[in-house]
Design brief:
Elements (H helix, E strand, L loop, with lengths): L44 H28 L1 E2 L2 H5 L5 E2 L3 H7 L2 H32 L4 H16 L2 H11 L6 H6 L10 H29 L3 H9 L4 H12 L1 H16 L3 H6 L12 H11 L3 H28 L5
Antiparallel strand pairs: 1-2
Helix pairs in contact: 1-14, 3-14, 4-8, 4-11, 5-8, 6-8, 8-11, 11-14, 13-14
Amino acid sequence: MRPDPNATAPPGAGTAGTAARPPGPARGRPRPAAPARTGRRGGATPWLYLAPALVVLAALLVYPVYQLGLISFLEYTQAQVSGGQPTTFQGLGNYRTLLGDPRFRDVLLATVLFAAACVLATLAVGCTLAVLLTRVRALPRTALMLASLGAWATPAVTGSTVWLFLFDPDLGPVNRVLSLGDFSWTYGQYSAFLLVLLEVVWCSYPFVMVTVYAGIRAIPEEVLEAAALDGASSWRTWRSVMAPMLRPILVVVTIQSVIWDFKVFTQIYVMTGGGGIAGQNLVLNVYAYQKAFASSQYSLGSAVGVVMLLILLAVTLVYLRLLRRQGEDI
């Protein structure tokens, strides 16, 4: 039976070999206009919200740093402060004096090594105790938290004085327990640095512990259970599972520890009596204090402060750049 050529096809049916097209928009109907793209997102509104904080930062940070840098380029001693002599521009003369001073180079090296040891010890103790908090019951966890926060809240002067008493050669309990007799921890250079390092770690590890513990609690339980089922040890679980997931948090605590430990002042000044015998325990912060206030060489003290600022900025930027090269989203 032949199909009738005059028969009309049903609506929507296409010709042979051609798929039926979905009904399109009616001709002549205007399409909705795409939203216009603006070059700035949000305009000036975010800056209005940030303005109060920026003003406070400018007053508390930018202006002092500007004054610090300005004084470092001048000859500014007690004679200029009292008005007896005019202030003269020295350019880079103060920095050349510092870099040409062997004592400054020794203090700089001692500061870098001491800060590195403090950072590594603080991270090791803080991360270990953070993992321990996840393994113990509520009562010992609460006791450890309270003890750690108590150490964190103790003022640096008070903590340094307590640690000096604990390691006192005559009355301190540490020498009696270790049978060290009248051994003086603050007499030798390395023993004094070790004593200060223990106090710095004691008052610094709670920040690392609490921060890392909060990050561990945010890790899904399924991930840790899978590692345990695979037979991973505690160290392997930390190295292969926890540490990669906690890397953004570890970046924060590492940078904070570097900044805090590099500019240690109170512990060195109190526990070694201003830098130890013949200045054997000087660090840059105490060295800058001696130059600026003990010797009234304010320009040299300011130059030391600028050098410390540049070193900390360089260390932070290099560390963040290395992390970005590894694909971290910082």
